[in-house]
Specification:
The complex is a heterodimer.
Chain A (H helix, E strand, L loop, with lengths): L1 E12 L2 E12 L3 E5 L6 H9 L6 E6 L2 E2 L11 E3 L11 H11 L4 H14 L15 H13 L5 E5 L7 H18 L2 E6 L2 H7 L2 E6 L2 E6 L1 H6 L4 H6 L4 E9 L4 E6 L2 E7 L5 E7 L5 E3 L6 E10 L3 E8 L2 E8 L11 E5 L6 E4 L5
Helix pairs in contact in A: 2-3, 2-4, 3-4
Chain B lengths: L5 H25 L16 H7 L2 H34 L5 H9 L6 H15 L5 H25 L3 H9 L4 H30 L4 H4 L7 H11 L4 H30 L6
Helix pairs in contact in B: 1-11, 2-11, 3-6, 3-8, 3-10, 6-8, 7-8, 8-11
The chains are: A alpha+beta, B mainly alpha.
């Protein structure tokens, strides 16, 4: 059953449309991410769900209950803010207990629930600290505990990891997922970080210009993007402008300049298309076996992998190779590239970001 | 770490001497056993401190000043906290005009203000009353309070109030439990600065007092226009010590406060 139902949600600020007929439903226990670049409307959507912004039109229903007349304070949502927004003059315990206090939960039950929640986020030993005496990661956990202790029907996370450094962010991703699953709380995350969205979510809703572009599992969105924007926003991707010669059923025939490519089965009709190819699906191969040949113009070592930029007849292609200890092509070296036709994605022309 | 050079140290020393010298002279003069102003004093005597007790006028004036300071600082703070929250909280029509209005007393010469208040209070029939004095002092000190409170409000993360709202707190609860405690340093600082400014105010006050509501600065001023005995020095010394004590208390409070909001070490 859907816990949260957004239907044709629209928000205008004067002439600009921040959110444009956005429809999404979130199932109980699910972790859904709103992903997109800044200004795509994801934060405004979250603000409307939280009750801090009023929708221009459309509806928000929580558990079948229409939220349009419910003020923010009565929605009972757990919210983790980007700045954590901890109460600076209260201890960790008082911060976490605030929501229970507002709900007039008796003192002994309050104490028990605070202890349980702090235990869940592994902060029991710091309950008497003030926020300023804690690290970013610890404050993040306090914010999470404060939102979870009220046992919200829905947890809203507003770029919760963006203020942490890279290493801590990776740790907190795993931690956040564990806590979310242990608490079993339905979660809506807003983020511009595609790796965060992919690592955490059951489902990703990619937004652009206030609109929902694609809604899919992380794997599906990455592997089968429905347009060039999703393909380039999620991970790295090579976008190649091409001409689809034979449409309809059967394998596609693509032409890019004077290079002919075999494509996967596509239902699209003939015409200009955008072909997307993930850099990790491209292989180096021997002379004569390749689909295109080219020269390595950039080579970056990333530890676990190598990143190449190869100048070919199709333009410059990114190639990612796992670091397997083998010798990899040098800068300026002539290379031959090949890939499986099924790894090409044929998308609408002009849909790249 | 940046270390101060010799020139910077010398500058600081000269500045400190420049600031403190008049106070040291006044306090030195206060202990003279003679009947005239002398420095350094030829001996140490509490004669002029005892003399304060024989001049109930000064004590009355000090009491008026204290009451005036407390009343006007409190009223100004009560006005400025909501004003600062509105001005610092976000954009709205007339926001800049409101802020300019609150700060405008700073830009008017105090002599002009004094004459204007005199005329205004006479028209209202409040001339020389304690209420009239409080009103004028509130106008004079509002800019000081507003600026300090505003500094605190601007430093406040707006998400904090939203977080409290999302946890079920209503408007008043958010104000009393979350916003006000978070801006307390600015509020306390603003109150104290306002109190000191009011306690010290002479230029405007001299226009609008009458004998029953004479404040300490006005009393001192009128005293030295008639005589030049060391009584003014001993009264000033008491006032200086009182101010120092007040600052020490605030420092304690503020330090305590910093602890309350989690700064510093435990």
């Amino acid at each position: 059953m859907a816990i949260l139902e957004l239907r044709d949600l629209t928000k205008r600020f004067g002439e600009t449309i921040a959110v444009d007929r956005f429809t999404l439903s979130v199932e109980k226990g699910e972790f859904v991410s709103l992903l997109g670049p800044s200004g795509c409307g994801k934060t405004t959507t979250l603000q409307m769900v939280a009750g801090f912004e009023t929708p221009t039109s459309g509806s928000i229903a929580l558990n079948g209950r229409d939220l349009s007349k419910v003020p923010a304070r009565a929605r009972g949502l757990g919210i983790v803010f980007q700045t954590y927004a901890l109460f600076p003059h209260m201890t960790v315990e008082e911060n976490v207990g605030f929501g229970l206090e507002m709900r007039k939960v008796p003192a002994d039950e309050r104490k028990r629930r605070i202890a349980e929640t702090l235990d869940l986020v592994h902060l029991s030993h710091l309950s008497a600290r003030y926020p300023r005496q804690m690290s970013g990661g610890q404050r993040q956990r306090v914010a999470l505990a404060r939102a979870l202790v009220i046992e919200p029907e829905l947890l809203l996370l507003d770029e919760p990891l963006s203020n942490l450094d890279a290493k801590l962010r990776e740790e907190m991703q795993l931690e956040l997922r564990r806590i979310q699953q242990e608490a079993g709380v339905t979660t809506l995350l807003v983020t511009h970080d595609q790796s965060e969205a992919m690592a955490l979510s059951d489902r990703i809703a990619v937004m652009q210009g206030g609109r929902l572009i694609q809604e899919a599992t992380p794997f599906e969105a990455y592997d089968r993007p429905t347009n060039g924007f999703v393909s380039s926003f999620l991970g790295k991707s090579n976008a190649i402008d091409a001409h689809l010669e034979a449409g309809g059923p059967g394998a596609a025939q693509l032409r890019c300049g004077d290079i002919r490519l075999d494509g996967p089965v596509s239902s699209q009709g003939p015409g200009a298309v955008l072909v997307s190819l993930r850099p990790e699906r491209i292989e180096f191969c021997g002379e004569g076996e390749g689909i295109v040949s080219g020269t390595v113009v950039e080579r970056v070592f990333l530890g676990d992998q190598w990143l190449f930029k190869v100048k070919t007849g199709l333009g410059e292609l990114l190639v990612v190779r796992r670091n397997s200890g083998r010798r990899e092509p040098d800068l300026g070296e002539a290379v031959h590239l090949s890939w499986q036709a099924e790894h090409l994605r044929i998308l609408e022309a002009g849909s790249a970001a | 770490m940046i270390r101060n050079g010799a020139f910077a140290k010398l500058f600081s020393l000269v500045f400190a001497v420049f600031m403190l010298a008049p106070l040291v002279v006044v306090m030195g003069v206060a202990f003279t056993p003679e009947g005239f102003l002398e420095f350094p004093p030829s001996g140490i005597s509490l004669r002029w401190f005892e003399a304060i007790l024989d001049n109930p006028d000064f004590i009355d004036a000090a009491i008026v000043s204290l009451q005036l300071g407390v009343a006007s600082a409190t009223i100004a703070t009560v006005i400025c906290v909501p004003a600062a929250l509105a001005i610092g909280g976000g954009r709205f029509a007339g926001r800049d005009a409101l802020q300019a209005l609150f700060l405008s007393p700073l830009t008017v010469p105090t002599v002009v203000l004094g004459i204007a208040f005199l005329r205004f209070l006479s028209m209202m029939g409040l001339n020389g009353t304690f209420g009239g004095l409080v009103f004028c002092h509130v106008v004079i000190i509002v800019p000081f309070v507003l600026r300090l409170v505003l500094a605190s409000v601007t430093g406040l993360d707006p998400s904090i109030a939203r977080a409290a709202t999302s946890l079920g707190a209503g408007g008043w609860t958010v104000f009393w439990r979350i916003t006000l405690p978070a801006i307390v340093p600015g509020v306390v600082g603003g109150w104290v600065l306002a109190f000191i400014t009011s306690f010290d105010e002479l230029t405007v006050t001299v226009f609008i007092v009458n004998p029953a509501t004479t404040t300490l600065p006005v009393k001192l001023f009128s005293h030295i226009t008639q005589t030049t005995d060391p009584l003014v020095a001993s009264v000033s010394t008491v006032a200086i010590l009182f101010t120092v004590a007040l600052m020490l208390i605030v420092d304690r409070l503020y330090g305590l406060d910093r602890l309350l909001i989690g700064e510093g070490t435990r």
